[in-house]
Amino acid sequence: MNKFAKALALVGLAASSPAISGTACPPHQPGAPYPWEVQGQFSGDQWAEVELDLDVKGKATGCRVLKSNMSSEDNFWVCGAMQVQGQYDPVMKDGVAVPGTIKSKTVMMGMRHREANAAARKRWFREHPAERWDCYPE
Fold it and tell me: Could you give the CA distance from residue 103 to residue 90 in angstroms, rounded to a whole number?
């Protein structure tokens, strides 16, 4: 197959791809749940309730674990991740951002929870055939 034919075949495949030819994917906020996500706690889930100190910009400056079913080492890493990677709205008082404290909970899904979400995802796509898989990465 000559170079022109290969290029034409690739362009044809790309143009017929639903990712390119379909409508734009709906926006998704990182950390927000997908529409099929199974709520609640499952056996095997690990969780931590934390208290975060925030500056006026919403950046976490301190973290304390209030309750958890994780090891103390995992609690350390959870607090570190929530301080470094977390994005929080600042605490507001009378319409002005002020330093303050918020409470948050994080859950690391166990195997049963992941399996329930995988089944719910498949069911959701069967019930919504117009939705594209490529708009909802795993």
Answer: 12
The pLDDT tens digits of the residues spanning 11-52 come to 454 444 544 556 788 888 777 888 999 998 999 999 999 999
How does DSSP assign 63-132, residue by residue? EEEEEESS-HHHHHHHHHHHHHH---PPEEETTEEE-EEEEEEEEE--HHHHHHHHHHHHHHHHH-TTS-
Q: How far apart are CA 24 and CA 26, in angstroms?
A: 6
Residues 47, 74 contacting (CB under 8 angstroms):
no
Q: Is residue 16 part of a domain?
A: no
pLDDT in the model for residue 97: 95
> Could you list the residue range(s) of the whole structural domain that residue 102 is in?
46-107
Q: What is the pLDDT of residues 48-77, one digit of tens each?
A: 999 999 999 999 999 999 999 999 999 999
pLDDT recorded at residue 16? 47
